[in-house]
Amino acid sequence: VTGQLHVLLPLDYEERKVYYLDVILKDLENEAAPNTQKTTTCNVTIFVTVTYWAPDPWFVVVLTLTGILFFSALGLLGPLEPGEAVFALLEAQEKTPEPGESENGPSAVV
């Protein structure tokens, strides 16, 4: 005797939260004398629980060139024109000062 119930298909919490079963219990240990096998019924209530983890929703924003142009056109990235904003962004990424150079160009030692 295991006392376990097995279902053929998964139970869906969103479809139904509670199942009521009428189970017929039969004494299978006494197969030699089937006339003396005892049977009875019982009611089983199954409460389905959620077993998967659903994280809180979160969003990732990837600012692509198209997105930069779009937000610049809406005025959300500053007062610059879309072409100027992209140019300034690309220039800032590509240009790094050399040693002995300031942001405005080479520095002179007097």
From TrEMBL:
It is found in: Membrane. InterPro entries: Cadherin-like_sf (IPR015919). It comes from Pseudonaja textilis (Eastern brown snake). This is Uncharacterized protein. GO terms for molecular function: calcium ion binding. One of its GO terms (cellular component) is membrane. The chain crosses the membrane at residues 58-77. Keywords: Membrane, Transmembrane, Transmembrane helix. Gene3D superfamilies: Cadherins.
